[in-house]
Amino acid sequence: MIEDGYADFAQRWNPILDVYDEVGVRFAHEVHPSEIAYDYWTTVRTLEAIDHRPAFGLNWDPSHMVWQDLDPVAFILDFPDRIYHVDCKDTKKRFDGRNGRLGSHLPWANPRRGWDFVSTGHGDVPWESAFRALNSIGYKGPISVEWEDAGMDRLKGAEEAVSFIRGLAFDPPTASFDAAFSTKKD
């Protein structure tokens, strides 16, 4: 049944990707529960199903990886040629033996939830490591902030999140750190 599902996905998406190839479009799929690729191994399987076509890439959104206990930085490093968009959204985990991973049908911001979306920079995403990884793979694509936090005012939180990300979106160095020692001044 699983193999049939990936075959069906490929049958439906390959004609779409053909058109994308013709017109120069690259699709960025968000790895997200309820999607064909929702974690590391389903992402591998999805890319295999379409023979790693360049028109199909990934929207890196670490918020869904964190609550699944996936390493969002390793994801960047393992799929360097597939990261087509970066979506900065954060998650805070609160697994204490009572709060479950599946949310327990509790509303957002309820402290009994095992995890919740929070304003970027207030959660468990290792943002600095992620941006260093993005630099290491030469990522030059778009970076957006997807703001979701049911416990914070959106105008304060969104502005703060954008400032936080701008502080991390630094350029990689153009020379090694010790190159300054070989520079002479007259």
Topology:
Layout lengths: L1 H22 L3 E4 L9 H10 L6 E5 L1 H6 L4 H7 L4 E6 L1 E4 L21 E4 L8 H10 L6 E3 L8 H15 L18
Parallel strand pairs: 1-2, 2-3, 3-6
Antiparallel strand pairs: 4-5
Task: State the order of secondary-structure elements, H for helix, E for strand.
Answer: HEHEHHEEEHEH
Beta strand %: 5-15%
Q: Which structural class best describes the helix and strand composition?
A: alpha/beta
Shape: globular
Low-confidence stretches: none
Measured distance between first and last alpha carbons: 72 Å
Q: What is the helix content? A: 25-40%
Q: In what order do the strands lie side by side in the largest sheet?
A: 1-2-3-6
The average pLDDT is 94
How many alpha or pi helices? 6
Compute the gyration radius: what is it?
Answer: 19 Å
- Biggest sheet: strands, sense, closure? 4 strands, parallel
Question: What do these coordinates show?
Answer:
There is one protein chain. The chain is 38% helix and 14% strand. By secondary structure, the chain is of the alpha/beta class. The model has no long low-confidence stretch (mean pLDDT 94).
Kindly summarize this structure in a few lines.
38% of the residues lie in helices and 14% in strands.
